Amino acid sequence: MCSFHRRHGDEHTESDPDDQTILNQAETVTERVSDVAFPAFSLDRGEGCEIHENAYWDLQTYLGLRGNLAVNEGARSFIHESNRERTPLGHAHREHVRDLSIEQIREMYRQAVGRLLDRVTDTEEFFRAGIVAIDITESDPFTGDRTGHEDEIIGTKEKTDEYAYQWATVQLVGNAVPIVLDARPVRKGDTRKEIVEDLLDSAEAAIHVDNVLMDREFDSQHILEMLSQRGLSYVVPKRMQTSEKAQAKRLLQRDKDRYETDRKLHLGDNEWHSTTLIYRRKEDSEHDDHRQYSVFMTNRNSGLLTEYGYRWEIESGYKSIKRFMGATTSKHFGLRFFYFAFACLLYSVWRAVDLLVQVQLTGEYEHAPIVTADNTLTLVKKETGIG
Fold first, then answer.
1. Cβ atoms of residues 105 and 338 within 8 Å
2. Does the pLDDT at position 332 exceed 50?
3. Which DSSP helix (H) or strand (E) runs through 368?
4. Rounded to whole angstroms, how far apart are CA atoms 4 and 22?
5. CB half-sphere exposure, 157, CA atoms < 13 A
6. φ, ψ for residue 147, nearest 5 deg
7. 283 in a domain, yes or no?
8. Model confidence over 133-191: pLDDT tens digits?
């Protein structure tokens, strides 16, 4: 999926790929998606359908690889580029996807990721896994009339006056290949604890999880207690309250870069959650007061803090995922979620293919994706077992 490199740039690339290489790479990724994902996806369209089901997923992949291509326009272009005798028209594609429930989409996604994990777990590099990050992302602000959809188009994380669809994901981070293990919609009324438990259930069913990284919107003591009860370690930044601000001011006066202290967080009745607060001064901070410090909570040693830097991968990953989504103006919640989930799958497949290519060609896995040339693609097909 070289389009990622083209848009973001990468100092690891030997040279910018030409159009033919990008075309070949897109084609290769499409083949991988067909091989891995399609057997897990079913439209249940009944007997006697003239258009092969895989043609629907071919079209969705085509939309993703072309970036923000609307389905009607994409269907017309796809007719010219596809090798299939019959291809789905835009409206038919939408109707069939609309028939899928949120839970059906999630189950298909988990099955597809399971098949993907089966492919990559053969490489020892994959077993550096064990760290997952849970996060919420939002689509571009919704500017239309949301009447009747207030529970689905729920606002933005920054508490502005804008509204947007929100999706939650759990993703492998760290030295592991950054596969999105599961995704779910966020509706009005969903608690952060419910979201975390739900996504962790999926993650732990798929891989062995040791550590969980989350953003400060998940800093509730009840979430932290739940993670500890599951035997998981966590690193979560804490929103600074009065006591943390006072402590940060004292650290500033003493010119200390780092400070640790144990804290008990009240759970209710006479129950408490024990955690460790770590204050860390940011390098090159733009502030000259207590805001130079960040406060993190962890239930393990402070060495885990270095892992929190892995969360940036989610942010860069989300940028890619959003670029792999087909465009739609529909307010159909299932359709919107499907577009996001399928984009997560495209991203995950690409990163999995990249892992296998790197290990095959270099014997190791560097986290920066490599741009593959024509001869590399030939090697992949011949020698890695993914062709």
1. yes
2. yes
3. none
4. 10
5. 15
6. -55, 130
7. no
8. 999 998 888 888 899 999 998 988 777 789 999 999 999 987 778 889 999 999 999 99
Q: Which of 189, 191, 271, 173 is nearest to 228 (CA)?
A: 271
List pLDDT tens digits, range 92-127. Answer: 556 667 778 899 889 888 988 888 888 777 766 665
pTM of the model: 0.78
In a domain, 141, yes or no: yes
Residue 42 counted as domain residue:
yes
Of residues 187, 136, 308, the one with CA closest to residue 238: 308
Instruction: Give tens-digit pLDDT for 256-286.
Output: 999 999 999 999 999 999 999 999 998 888 8
The reply to whether 272 falls in a domain is: no
Contact 280, 308 (CB under 8 A): no
Domain containing 28 equals 3-234+309-383
What's the angle, vertex CA 364, arms to CA 363 and CA 366, rounded to 5? 145
The number of domains in the chain is 1
The reported pLDDT for the residue numbered 2 is 32
Strands 293-298 and 271-281: antiparallel
| The two structure tokens encoding residue 43 | 């439209």
DSSP single-letter state for residue 215: -
